Amino acid sequence: MRLADLSKRSGVSTATIKYYLREGLLPPGRQINATTAEYDDGHLRRLRLVRALIQVGKVPVATAREVLGHVDDESLGRTIRLGAALWALPQDPEPDEADPAVAAARVEVDRLLELLGWETSRELAPLSPVHRSLVVAVAGLRRLDYPWDAELMAPYGELMMEAARRDLDFLETHAQDSEKVEMAVASAVLFQPVLRALHRLAQEEESARRYGIE
Amino acid sequence: MRLADLSKRSGVSTATIKYYLREGLLPPGRQINATTAEYDDGHLRRLRLVRALIQVGKVPVATAREVLGHVDDESLGRTIRLGAALWALPQDPEPDEADPAVAAARVEVDRLLELLGWETSRELAPLSPVHRSLVVAVAGLRRLDYPWDAELMAPYGELMMEAARRDLDFLETHAQDSEKVEMAVASAVLFQPVLRALHRLAQEEESARRYGIE
DNA sequence: CGTATTGGTGAGCGACACTATCCAAATGCC
DNA sequence: GGCATTTGGATAGTGTCGCTCACCAATACG
Q: What percent of chain A has pLDDT over 70?
């Protein structure tokens, strides 16, 4: 398969594919000679994943490169690779430690994790980018004077834990080992919009049930 | 309160505030004379909401203007205003109707809504931007050969319905009438990152429990 | 043999959220 | 009253980012 074929089969323009190659999001094809390179189905799958990350997940190109680097790192075990890849995904700004809202948010988040009994998350808290994202998000809410507290959020945490269990069950039953890392990354990115849309739909539905459509 | 005071109290630069005024995201202050305009706490609150929409929610300026227009539309009843504002929020591209993945996704989404018994959502399906977002998201998954079907997703739908019920309960108990529309918009935007972070944290936690940290 | 196509590269584009600079009118301090 | 300072308002510029275009010599194809 040559570049033009890859383009046709994926629906991505050759110019964009070249750009991805340049940016290291797509491994180079097998160079046959100065004007021909051969691509395979692996490239096609990788290209789809890249598009998913960038277009659906709005992941910046630089972050995508990092994530994919972890996915490909053969020197690591599967679990670590998966962790590293997911770990690299979030792209939230560093919290401003001088902001009192951030400090308060940190305390409240820790209380929430304690309530939920998420011990691992508490231990990893200082390191985890996801934890940082949560603190930033909560600080944002507090700055707008939202009554956000651990007791109020705990049920949402339980709901998300239930979702997470389903996610992992799904991963175990539906992916062969070699694809698990890739699939986990794709899920993390592609599932998000689905969940969000479901949430909003549920809000519309419940709102209509309570107050009518008018 | 003059422009400079508004800037100090909100932490937003005067240049940016001027930009928002120009873009119609912030109503003009009460003009006292050619060089002085007076702003009040309403402006401060609105400014915070604008920042939340744009910075946290990544809502494009044009969309934010539209959403805020609905929030302010005194000619509508509360429920309609809320609906209109939330409907204007999503900013997903139009689905490509020629794409077979989109058609298949539409069928599967409808089956899901039937399974869940979300009748209102099914009726409103052709109109709702949220429904459209869901179809686009599902089509994206299918294009990557994800085994996505209604039965698999139904439990997630139930979880989101549970979350939606909590959302509305919260809104009813914590906001006075005049602020409900504004608060609903803020929640829709600010809650999203919190939920997402909780979801990822839950995945980390559950993954650690199953496979260890290594 | 000649046209078309290949992969590679540097520069350019369009969208977007600001931001820097000016400006004339008005204020505030002495 | 005088004069530097500050005000709101307008215009043009900046930085970032994900592409996209134009062009190149080398090669493939009919």
A: 99
